[in-house]
Amino acid sequence: MEATASATEKGQLSIHTDNIFPIIKKFLYSDHEIFLRELVSNAVDATQKLKKLAGFGEFNGELGELKVTVKLDEEAKTITISDRGIGMTADEIKKYINQIAFSGAAEFVEKYKEKEDTRGNIIGNFGLGFYSSFMVAREVEIITKSFQEGAEAVRWTCDGSTEFSIEPAQKEDRGTDIILHVAEDSEEFLQKYRLSGILEKYGKFLPVEIEFDEKIINNPSPIWTRQPSELKDEDYIAFYKELHPMSEDPLFWIHLNVDYPFNLTGVLYFPKLKNDFSIKKEKIQLYSRQVFITDEVKDVVPDFLQLLHGVIDSPDIPLNVSRSYLQSDSNVKKINGYITRKVADKLSEIFRNDREGFEKKFDDIGLFVKYGMISDDKFGEKAKEFCLVKNLEGKHFTFEEYTEKVKENQTDKAGTVVWLYASDAQKQDTYIQSAQKRGYDVLIFDSVIDPHFINGIEYKIEKTSIKRVDADTLDKLIEKEIKLESVLSKDDEERAKKLFEETLGGAPKLTVTVEAMPTDEMPVVITIPEFIRRMNDMAATSGQKSMFGDMPMMLNVAINANHPVTQKILNAAASEGSEPSDAAEAKALIRHAYNLALLSQGMLTGSDLTAFVQQAISRL
Ligand SMILES: Nc1ncnc2c1ncn2[C@@H]1O[C@H](COP(=O)(O)OP(=O)(O)OP(=O)(O)O)[C@@H](O)[C@H]1O
């Protein structure tokens, strides 16, 4: 075959079905707009190829201005995409446009028959890029002239049937014009704002200048394509603002750059997260050689890292295949692992080099680090070194540091180190103060992720258990070998227990115990078992009902045997009659002490609280 088309030549496209275009149209229905991404990418590729050839010395002509132009002619109802790239000879058109694409199409037709769910993902996979133009055009013309010396211009047309024609054409300059004669049902694409929207979405960072409506619409050398050494903080922040104009400055960022065993560049930013767990994901954009692909990075980026913002660019991610394939793709898995490692390394680096700065940022990145620790084992392994906990004095500790700090005073008789924490320092103040009186330290875990975090890490820290200060009496939270002696006889303890059970009987479910506590602690302490409360907390923050959601709240009521009030109750009961049921004064004291205990747990509410206040007033 000759390299040029000397006369008009008609041909039949080699494909086993009469017309693939209705199929293309139907199956790519939701994504029609990507025709422009495909055609502009082809134009950019052709331009880049020419630049490369010039670099190799295989093209010695003038490169000149290399921009790609998109033109809209509303009257003629055409969209034209022009480049000054390598162009095509007649033979190349036959090879690249007629055959390859159509054999791809045949394969596509075969495959799609079985799988409906792959729609929208087909195009690039089967080399149908160029043919996506038929989703919006009733006829497509290619007028092209190869960069090669002496090449002649060619015109190819096809109206969406399996017939094409190819003939000599007039074209001064090298390069390609793709002219789309827009079909009636696609006239939405003849609107300027629609086209500029699509270009903005997919082409914002294409590597060659793209002109539309007499303006350059893109930034051809975005930050991720440049060397970290030539970039300043301001550059990173400016780029962040370009991506997320309304956001606060990011905390810090990671510049990704690998070329083996896969290609990947990008910049990931740590946004200010605070406690907002409802933060919108989809803030990382995925590019392939600077062409925007998607902001759904679910399969490429581990779940917890989707809280980050930024850009990932990799030609090695199979972008146009079905989801299940993507998940099992080994490159995707490697990329996933690489990103996780990079992020952990960066955090660990900041932690080591700037502990103070790291601590300041921890309120923001804590959510993210904790989320990572409980959802990704590999990250968790590394994060153990730099994940921080904060105590009520506002001091930060690594796990190891904290255990070191409290182990002397807070190791129980089984040798387990007990970390005490509060989830609300205000509400749990009584308990906190009691713990502090014993020289115990109390951590603060008050973010939405903390219930999950505590549950997730507890078993990962050796010989440690984590308990909320009000989960039990202090003696039971940290059981020691030597216990305080009870001043009450066994009989008196039994009497006190009975009196309480009788007085407080009914809902909620109560378990009454008598314990020897210091006299300066509360006469009655109410606690909710750690396990039950934790399950309820976790259910509440994840917005679901836990399997314990319907469980009646269980309360432990511990009577302080050593408190003078307990003695007073017993005395009152003794003087009032032999039957405990006679003891009106004793019962009033019990209710009062119980209400005070509820009050300090923040559990005295509603009509009970009102009655309690009324009663207190009447005593004034
Ligand atoms: N503007 C252009 N200039 C030069 N050659 C082009 C141009 N557009 C398309 N081609 C040629 O036609 C071929 C087929 O294009 P098509 O878009 O169908 O597939 P592709 O670009 O190879 O792959 P993809 O599926 O990723 O788009 C290209 O590989 C290229 O050789």
Structure description:
With 620 residues, the protein is α+β, with helices and mostly antiparallel strands. It has four domains: 17-216, 2-Layer Sandwich (Heat Shock Protein 90), CATH 3.30.565.10; 223-353, Ribosomal Protein S5, domain 2 (2-Layer Sandwich); 387-477, Rossmann fold; 490-528 and 549-618, Heat shock protein 90, C-terminal domain (Four Helix Bundle (Hemerythrin (Met), subunit A), Up-down Bundle). Helix content is 38%, strand content 19%. It has 19 helices and 22 strands. Helix 8 packs antiparallel against helix 9 (355-375). Residues 38, 42-43, 46, 83, 85-88, 96-97, 101, 124, 127-130, 176 line the site of adenosine-5'-triphosphate (ATP). The site of adenosine-5'-triphosphate has 18 residues, from helix 2 and helix 3.
Radius of gyration: 36 Å
Number of strands: 22
- What topology, given as strand order, has the largest sheet? 1-6-5-4-7-3-2-8-9
Considering the protein shown, what is the CATH homologous superfamily of the largest domain? Histidine kinase-like ATPase, C-terminal domain
Largest sheet: 9 strands, mixed
Q: Tell the overall outline.
A: elongated
Number of domains: 4
* Oligomeric state, counting identical vs distinct chains: single chain
Q: Mean pLDDT, nearest integer?
A: 85
Query: Fraction of residues in helices?
Result: 25-40%
The hetero compounds bound to this protein are: adenosine-5'-triphosphate
Q: Any idea of the CATH topology of the largest domain?
A: Heat Shock Protein 90
What is the CATH C level class of the largest domain, in words?
Answer: Alpha Beta
CATH architecture of the largest domain: 2-Layer Sandwich
Protein name: Chaperone protein HtpG
Keywords: ATP-binding, Chaperone, Cytoplasm, Nucleotide-binding, Stress response
Organism: Runella slithyformis (strain ATCC 29530 / DSM 19594 / LMG 11500 / NCIMB 11436 / LSU 4)
InterPro entries: HATPase_C_sf, HATPase_dom, Heat_shock_protein_90_CS, HSP90_C, Hsp90_fam, Hsp90_N, Ribosomal_Su5_D2-typ_SF
